[in-house]
Specification:
The protein has a domain of 137 residues. A hairpin with a 6-residue loop joins strand 7 and strand 8. The chain is built from 9 helices and 20 strands. By secondary structure, the protein is an alpha+beta fold. It is elongated and about 90 Å long. The chain has a 20-stranded mixed beta sheet that branches.
């Protein structure tokens, strides 16, 4: 028995030694060529390993490659990676399930060349024929056969180029994704810088299998921007239960939203596709718009010259999707003005935003208004109308902090227009 045990230990030691030594015996040139061929065939793109490729077997099967390039001309995507590393658990050798320990992309530079309008339309038509653009089914199918402990991007840069628009650069990209199992939590966190503004976001789903089986799953989303894209919008948090509908849309019921210091209850529908669409209903007991009307904080004297050359705030972050929204608030505060029974709706379609204040009850009476603008403009121009069926002049002047030698009711039906989002500039127009 002792000799048998010693023999087993010897065989095991020999196997371990063979696995440990084998990677060093494989030609680096052959590894580069074979990895490039296999991955190019699997992805339909051209992948080349131009630098050293190192293999290891302990504690995991791992590969580290330097100077990797990718080209997918059909999609207009090219990428360069300073280093790509990945590792899988040894158990993947005898299991029918791939256990990915880590995939890390270091200092990637990814360039997207935007196609001309006719080419983009052709691609969109093919996309409609082949799928909805929703990544969840493919992700769930992959996780049925695999587990991903970590996918990370470090010091990444994304560049979008177009013949019509100036180059857009997203820099300092940091991303971490974890999807251990289709029955476990899926989490994604990311940060990036666009121009002078930095963003941070995180997203979690309690279990992807619940979604696949048309059952509710807990979802949370947080986002922060510095400086804020608009006054009062420094942070955004949302949570609730999401359900995948039979038509491929996602529905949230009983959710909660915090935007800045404002709190809402949320019911929403998200329809994925070439151009995503959101339908959102928000309700609030109390809504304070005063922070959203504040001007930007004053800068120091040494920073003043730089502020003069800064681009004006705009709404272009809304240009990539369509949406329908309604907001109802029992009470609203705007500076010294208080209102009740507020009804607001907005529709965003192909970059055109139309908003309507259906009802606003203040001490002096009721108001209604509508406004429209093009959110794709560098400095949006707003046009709309304001109407009332009888404002008490005395109460209205008191709200404005003025005294007027008039009494009675005031009826308004007037148009208005202004440009930009800066409070001081609007008051000067």
């Amino acid at each position: 028995m002792r000799r048998f045990i010693l023999s087993l230990l010897g065989v095991a030691a020999l196997a371990v030694a063979a696995i440990a030594v084998l990677p060093s015996l494989i030609s680096s040139d052959w590894v580069r060529a074979e990895l490039g061929r296999q991955l190019s065939a699997a992805t339909g793109s051209s992948i080349a390993f131009n630098g050293p490729v190192n293999l290891s077997a302990f504690p995991y099967l791992a590969v580290v490659a330097e100077d990797v390039t990718l080209s997918a001309e059909a999609e207009g995507i090219t990428a360069e990676f300073a280093e790509v590393s990945g590792s899988v658990a040894l158990s993947s050798l005898w299991s029918d399930r791939l256990h990915i320990k880590q995939i890390a992309l270091d200092r990637p530079v990814i360039v997207l060349e935007e196609k001309a309008a006719d080419e983009a339309a052709s691609t969109a038509d093919r996309g409609i024929e082949t799928g909805s653009g929703d990544p969840l089914p493919a992700l769930v199918a992959f996780l049925e056969r695999s587990a991903i402990e970590s996918v990370s991007i470090t010091s990444g840069t994304f560049i979008r180029r177009s013949a019509e628009d100036p180059e857009e650069v997203v820099s300092d990209v940091e991303l971490t994704l974890s999807a251990p199992d289709v029955d476990d939590a899926f989490s994604l966190s990311a940060s990036a810088r666009v121009g002078e503004r930095s963003y941070e976001t995180s997203f979690t789903i309690s279990t992807l299998r619940s979604l696949l089986e048309r059952q509710p799953a807990d979802v949370t989303l947080t986002a922060e921007a510095d400086p804020a894209p608009a006054p009062g919008l420094t942070n955004f948090e949302a949570s609730g239960q999401v359900t995948l509908n039979a038509n491929g849309s996602y529905q949230i019921r009983g959710g909660e939203v915090e935007a800045g210091e404002q709190a809402f209850s949320l019911n929403a529908l998200f329809v994925p596709g070439e151009r995503a669409r959101f339908l959102v209903d928000l309700e609030a007991d109390r809504l304070d718009l005063t922070p959203f009307m504040d001007v930007a904080p004053e800068t120091s004297q040494t920073e003043a010259p730089a502020a003069d050359t800064a681009k004006p705030a705009n709404l272009q972050f809304l240009a990539g999707f369509d949406a329908d929204m309604s907001i109802n608030a029992a009470a609203l505060t705007l500076g010294e003005i208080s209102a009740s029974d507020v009804s607001f709706s907005a529709a965003l379609k192909d970059g055109e935003l139309a908003a309507e204040l259906g009802h606003l009850e203040i001490d002096a009476g009721s108001l209604a208004a509508n406004v429209a603008t093009d959110v794709t403009a560098d400095e949006p121009a707003f046009r709309g109308r304001l109407a009332s069926k009888g404002l008490d002049i005395a109460k209205l002047s008191a709200l404005a902090g003025q005294t007027v030698p008039l009494s009675g009711a005031l009826t308004i039906d007037a148009g208005f227009a202004f440009r930009g989002l800066d409070g001081e500039a609007i008051r000067r127009q």
